[in-house]
């Protein structure tokens, strides 16, 4: 059977073969599923999770056959992808396999940032304004219904003018967006996208600058926002604001040189940012005292990650990531760091190079890699704990959850 499936994949019937493989695997015990995975080591195509498995997984169930799939397409323009790859496409078969939640009309916005809830139900994206034809705004995808919330983009509680960054709280209940104009920082509660608050004129905001980065503390109680760099002088001071995520009340602010992001630890008692001359500064909150200063020579260091305890900071840049503080060391990687998260085994980071995207752990081991046509156009975000990587590519449109190891739903003996 293995030879037959490989032959089918080789002559253009990859999807049909994979459908047969997944149905065969449903009746196998775990050791036989693992043997099948080994036997399919040379499988030339993708290994998507069928919708029938995804529904069970979304309910918190687990089965050995789930180990066979390495990703789930949450939303996909399969018609365009099939045409680009010049291969057969059967809409009815794809709908049966992927489910209606993976099928939708095309998206035409150019998005700047992406965030995802821990259960993969909510995906949030922000877009920039497109000339005089449309304003930038927030788009939220509900993987349970397969629907995009796009109707209210021009409404007051969605309108952000020019979206720069977006974040979902660790418990998946809040969505926060940062933009250049109008409501520069806005927080909504899902699933109804009820706006909690908006800060269009925080007293610390530079006139007209807006905010380019936003993120939550690990417990979701606080958010941190960084104002946009001044176009004519990127060394000028930028405002870093920490606020209550439910009310928008400011708990700390400072004006300093910032390169890239600022991040909070789990409890929101430590704030890290890359300051002038590459120094990584650690602030104690809420009093704002600088309690540690680390020097990094990592080129282009602008992506940061704090350990849950706040005693180790990881800087990501060009060619690797660097651990500073209680744990130290340089981990080399090809390309530029695009996203990071803290897993039970330490840091995980996504790097993109000219032709590929790769996730590595704190020891430099590749956990996932994929050829990619347009690395610069890839948007990606980890779920908390780094179990899943969500990616979005605009053409053909595809929103994909990649399952990294270990699967948090699997029993310990199966991991």
UniProtKB/TrEMBL annotation:
Pfam families membership: WD40
Entries under InterPro entries matching the protein: WD40/YVTN_repeat-like_dom_sf (IPR015943), WD40_rpt (IPR001680)
Highest taxon of source: Bacteria
Name used for this protein in its record: WD40 repeat domain-containing protein
Organism: Actinomadura miaoliensis
Source species taxonomy: Bacteria, Bacillati, Actinomycetota, Actinomycetes, Streptosporangiales
